[in-house]
Design brief:
The complex is a heterodimer of chains A (523) and B (292). Chain A is an all-alpha fold. Chain A has a single domain, classed as Cytochrome C Oxidase, Chain A (Up-down Bundle), CATH 1.20.210.10. Chain A is built from 16 helices and one strand. In chain A, α3 runs parallel beside α14, α7 runs antiparallel to α8 and α15 packs antiparallel against α16. Chain A is globular. Chain A starts with a strand and ends in a 36-residue tail after the last helix. Chain B folds into two domains: 61 residues, Helix Hairpins; 218 residues, Cytochrome c oxidase, subunit III, four-helix bundle (Four Helix Bundle (Hemerythrin (Met), subunit A), Up-down Bundle), CATH 1.20.120. Chain B is built from seven helices and three strands. In chain B, α5 packs antiparallel against α6. The N terminus of chain B is likely disordered. The chains are: A mainly alpha (523), B mainly alpha (292). At the A-B interface, β1, α1, α4, α6 and α7 of A face β1, α1, α3 and α6 of B. β1 of chain A pairs antiparallel with β1 of chain B.
Chain lengths: 523, 292
Amino acid sequence: MTTTVADHHHDEVPKGITRWLFTTNHKDIGTLYLWFSFTMFLIGGAMALVIRAELFQPGLQVVDPHFYNQMVTVHALIMIFGAVMPGFVGFANWMIPMMIGAPDMALPRLNNWSFWLLPFATSLLILSLFVPGGGPAAGWTIYPPLSVQGGMGVDLTIFTIHILGMSSILGAINIIATIMNMRAPGMTLMKMPLFVWTWVITAFLLIAAMPVLAGAVTMLLTDRHFGTAFFDPAGGGDPVMFQHIFWFFGHPEVYILILPAFGIISQVIPTFARKPLFGYTSMVFAAAAIAFLSFIVWAHHMYTVGMPLSGELFFMYSTMLIAIPTGVKIFNWMATMWRGSMSFETPMLYAIATVALFTVGGLTGLMMAITPADFQYHDTYFIVAHFHYVIFCGSVLGMFAGVYYWLPKWTGHMYNETLGKWHFWLTIIAFNVTFFPQHFLGFAGMPRRIPDYALQFAEFNVVSSIGGFVLGYSQLILLVVVIKAIRGGKKASAEVWDNPEGLEWSVASPAPYHTFATAPEVR
Amino acid sequence: MSAAHGGYYLPDPTKWPTITSMGLFLLALGFILKLHHLPPGPWLMIAGAVIIVLMLCAWFGQVAVESEAGRYDAQVDTSFRMGMGWFIVSEVMFFGAFFAALFYTRVLSVPWIAGEELLWPGFEATWPSAGPAGATFIGPDSHDVGPGQFSTIGAFGIPLLNTVILLVSSVTLTIAHWALKKNQRGALNFWLFVTVVLGAAFMYFQVGEYMEAYNHLGLTLGSGVYGATFFMLTGFHGFHVTVGAITLAVILVRCLRGHFKPDEHFGFEGAAWYWHFVDTVWVGLFIFVYIL
């Protein structure tokens, strides 16, 4: 039966495994998302270490090339669809209702469904590694004709993408309904915390982009098994069409991965600079502009495919336009810190690192936006370096900032600051050791997605592999930090930090199972 | 609902979504195994499908019971409206991918292939086309298809009739909605019934067209890009019509049981929105797939 929060079991927390299987509580579901994300982060990371182990020396020593290609493909799919996207949905679940003064998400049963689709979908993907012919090996972009030729693993991947897409769309619908319909009285749109704003924009991107990917992989499936010729020129189709449809999804997708991180650091930086966010309104409009532009830049991923010149020019200019709203954001974060009364706890360190290192990735992005220059960089390690600077340093470091920032609110205990700083410095140094040399490798012409390389690339690859292993094992520190904070530690106050802004700091730490059964008044 | 405590609605823990996810997993896995001719495939598919259908029935059934019990307030109603609205937007984008494929192949890839004189000498860019290695198009509605030839379904026969059927069904559905708002239950039941019958009639004609295409016109999923885009667009549309008609039939049963009030009937409206969406997609199909 259905009840309201006002009924008898107001603060009764269900027990046992069914609490997690059948929960409709946004905090429980947020916790599930975050643990799922972290598990996938470690699995995807282990795959990255297989890649780095193979690339430690030229020649083939650890795995065979086909398995190497599977690792490259599945690492990316797991990290994007298993680690980063669910991680941010976990943040959204935990924080958005508390930030807008709502008791829960708008559609709690749907919320449970969006989460529980994920483990089933990713099991299909991981299962693909064990079927005859192995997992998908065409890269995460699953371009035909390679992906049309692969074995059962590709079919498993296609259905993984279908189910993950369903999960994302349902999650996005829920987030939009929550933000548009559940705000406390007085919480007008332009009073919403920036994390809420970036998520509502992200949710629109998800609703518009994920179904297109579903369409693309459906065409792949029928080309594979039902005789259609979407991507086969002999039947009048075109493999390049897949690239167009895929990247129409793919470019909004990378902003789906980054915008919530922008939101998190827009919460963190003002707290530790002890100043309000500089240029709130321009932050909102910049995020919206980035979202709009993401739909008209897709072909910059495929300059070398043989497009008409007019297309190359259009996509070059539209891509360079993105630097403007992104620059506005970077400027505003720096202006927020300017003359602030700064302190450097772990969340702030991660937020600053996000701003600094994401900017590196943003600038290499501008280099690649220039069509003639991109002919040199295309499919080299320069690309690998670029997107790890944006996805790891933008999305993942942003998420780390959020974890340290809100962990006291989630667990009721302060995390261990010393361990947090160790985690930060090891991650930052190891990340740069891993990926900075890849810029040089790319310039020198080392192609990506190849398990072997010419001798002259050996030194940089040794450095990169050492960095990669340190980076991977450093993440276990985060696991220790989180478990320690759950089990005990210094009690966190309701405010946790020094006068932070936002409704989430007005409730106790840890946040009660149900918050805001009565809507708070927002001035 | 207790207004004294803010009156927010929160459902209790629920087992439907988790088990539905498992059903979906079995259905997908079974389908993949079947594609590769592995024996447990069909059984897993049946198990998955049964689980999904049972769970969805239970889930929607519970929502209907709660709704009739008056457990939902205006805020929940708004959440449902937003949920359904954005779900339809996502469906629009899904069809968008296939329309994009149609426009891309027709405007770009077929003429480009025809421009490759060395690769495909003698291939002319026309539409409909099954590509340089595919069957030759011999004009619409022709039953004299020899080997290596295909024909298409002309726009102004059954497709035109189907267009009229769907457009009329939208009108009858709206009349039913007006009747519900005026609390004229007899008219509501009648016009909703007519709508469901029109939906079924559409599907009857559509299935007939597919049989005609496969048996007499040489038009199949394998007829190059024309066959691919034709069957994927009309096929997914037909699937959506089926889902929409089943939904309307369920709503009809609920109406016959006296569900819905003149001022509170989101279940009806959600199904109606979906039906109008399916209708609109058909108009797009009729113009871009059949006429042009």
